[in-house]
């Protein structure tokens, strides 16, 4: 009996030692995982994001359902929106449909189908005509859209006024260059094609950037460093040799 008690005691001690070793190894592995995650987050924080971005791409795009559509979080909705825009562009650009013509044709087709359906059900089956729902635009929706549009237009006028006053030369030159590029692009394609190109770009570039943002940001940082090096060399060789008039220090009492 004493030998049996000693054996059971030894087994209990060995089981406790094994449990302690397993718990220590699991805690060590958890500590290693937490340290690795901290290191990866630190490395990601050191990467300079594109255009000085501090927020996630989803939040920059406004968040909610529109951002989900642009980033293909909801693939069915994104495909439907992009397919609808492509169909509109094909109708108006390739098939050379006009907006008024398309609207009238769609309205004629809808009225003809509803008219034939209503009369066929009454004449053949002696049933009452189908119920056509009453379509009405809610007043609150129109007021909200008008207020939002008014706010954006007034903010645009305020920005243009601030640029025109000459307070920020850099912003003025950027706006002038952007408008000139836009006018040049407008000569090559019409407004609908330009809008479609921008729409497709919004559905592709943010998705690709969100998927490969670490690689893109690292490449952009390297490109920025190389550009600064080349600019420094160009400034040392050419810009610094441009003669300038003598500057006289003026002291004001």
Which key phrases capture this entry?
single chain, 253 residues, mainly alpha, disordered C terminus
Set out the fold topology:
Elements: H1 2-46, H2 57-60, H3 64-70, H4 75-94, H5 99-124, H6 139-164, H7 169-188, H8 191-211, H9 213-237
Helix pairs in contact: 4-8
Structure description:
By secondary structure, this protein is mainly α. Among the domains are: 51-98 and 191-219, no CATH class; 138-188. It is 77% helix and 0% strand. The chain has nine helices and no strands. It has helices spanning 2-46, 57-60, 64-70, 75-94, 99-124, 139-164, 169-188, 191-211, 213-237. Helix 4 packs antiparallel against helix 8. The relative contact order is 0.07. One of its GO terms (biological process) is response to bacterium. Keywords: Endoplasmic reticulum, Membrane, Transmembrane, Transmembrane helix. Its main location: endoplasmic reticulum. Residues 66-252 form the Reticulon domain. InterPro entries: Reticulon (IPR003388), Reticulon-like (IPR045064).
Briefly summarize what is shown.
The chain is mostly helical and 253 residues long. Among the domains are: 51-98 and 191-219, no CATH class; 138-188. It has helices at residues 2-46, 57-60, 64-70, 75-94, 99-124, 139-164, 169-188, 191-211, 213-237.
């Amino acid at each position: 009996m004493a030998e049996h008690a000693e054996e059971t005691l030894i087994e209990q001690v060995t089981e406790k030692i094994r449990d302690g070793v397993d718990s220590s190894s699991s805690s060590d592995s958890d500590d290693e995982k937490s340290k690795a995650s901290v290191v990866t987050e630190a490395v990601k924080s050191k990467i300079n994001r594109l255009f000085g971005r501090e927020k996630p791409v989803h939040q920059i795009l406004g968040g909610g359902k529109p951002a989900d559509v642009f980033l293909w979080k909801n693939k069915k909705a994104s495909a439907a929106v992009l397919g609808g825009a492509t169909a509109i562009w094909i109708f108006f650009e390739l098939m050379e449909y006009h907006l008024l013509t398309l609207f009238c044709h769609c309205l004629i087709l809808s009225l003809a189908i509803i008219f034939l359906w209503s009369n066929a059900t009454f004449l053949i089956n002696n049933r009452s005509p189908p119920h056509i729902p009453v379509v009405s635009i809610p007043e609150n929706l129109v007021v909200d859209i008008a207020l939002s549009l008014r706010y954006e237009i007034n903010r645009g006028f305020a920005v243009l006024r601030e640029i025109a006053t000459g307070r920020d030369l850099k912003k003025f030159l950027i706006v002038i260059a952007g408008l000139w590029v836009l006018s040049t692009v407008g000569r090559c394609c019409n407004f609908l094609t330009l809008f479609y190109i921008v729409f497709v770009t919004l559905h592709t570039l943010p998705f690709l950037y969100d998927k490969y943002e670490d690689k893109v940001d690292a490449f952009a940082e390297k490109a920025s460093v190389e550009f600064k090096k080349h600019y420094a060399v160009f400034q040392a060789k050419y810009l610094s040799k441009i003669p300038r008039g003598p500057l006289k220090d003026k002291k004001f009492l």
